[in-house]
Amino acid sequence: MNIKSAVITGSSRGIGEAIAIEFSKAGYNLVINSRDQEELSISKEEIIRAGNNSTRIVTFPGDISEEDVCIDIIKTAAQEFGTIDVLVMLVLTVRKKGLQR
To answer: What is the pLDDT of residues 29-38, one digit of tens each?
Structure first.
């Protein structure tokens, strides 16, 4: 059986969490990411409840606006699952002058 894997950033709430739930329902193993470890832990539990109980979920807290975090999240996914089939990057950075994309 070939189980697929997905890395989903910004997955502690909203659209990112909803996407993670749908990938879990489809049987994907997941690496989920958020800047806030507590929110990420809560999201993991919600994904488990709403998704597929056989899904493996790895949490990776960190700010993906930092290059080292981006590199490490991909390395973690590759180490945990061997391959990465899907990469979903949900990013929004707020600065004093407004939104930055």
So the answer is: 999 999 999 9
The burial of 46, by beta-carbon neighbours within 10 Å (0-12 exposed, 13-18 middle, 19 or more buried), is given as middle
In tens, the pLDDT along 61-94 reads 999 989 999 999 999 999 999 999 999 998 766 6
What lies within 8 Å, CB to CB, of 59 at 6+ separation is: 31, 32, 33, 37, 40, 41, 44
Distances from the Cα of 98 to the Cα of 59, 84, 92, angstroms: 29, 33, 11
CA distance 43 to 37: 10
Q: Kindly state which CATH superfamily the domain 5-100 is placed in.
A: NAD(P)-binding Rossmann-like Domain (3.40.50.720)
What ranges do the domains of the chain cover? 5-100
Alpha-carbon distance 21 to 79, whole Å? 22
